[in-house]
Fold this protein.
Amino acid sequence: MPGGTAHAACVRAFGLDGCRSPRGVAGKTGTPGDADERSLSQLAQDMRGRTACQSGASANCLAQYPLPRPRYRWYAAAFKSQGSDRYDKAIAVLVHSNWRRSDGRYADDQNAAAEMAMLAIRQFQTAQAKP
């Protein structure tokens, strides 16, 4: 669907024209709500602070310097085999992080899980179309 979270991934996998026509894919993207939003440099600084805090025998180090929380993106989809009128296949992809090199922050501008799934779906559908 144009404007949907996975639309950019669809375009990268199938091309713009390939995403304008029905692909026979119904999917959902997701990111856990508790993903850590600290940059890599901030996480490194916090972990150094935690180590220093613990060596000082402070009892409040965990609250002051929390451990990093997982950064995951996922995409799950049902899709149709070549020539099928039913959704008869499914795929789920879970990836750890989408990082931007520029600032080391968690990126929402691309969805690697959706792109991997779309590429796998394209490969599966293309392989089925060959005699």
User: Anything to note?
Assistant: DSSP finds five helices and three strands in the chain. Helices lie at 7-14, 16-20, 40-55, 61-64, 112-129. The beta strands are 25-30, 72-79, 89-96.
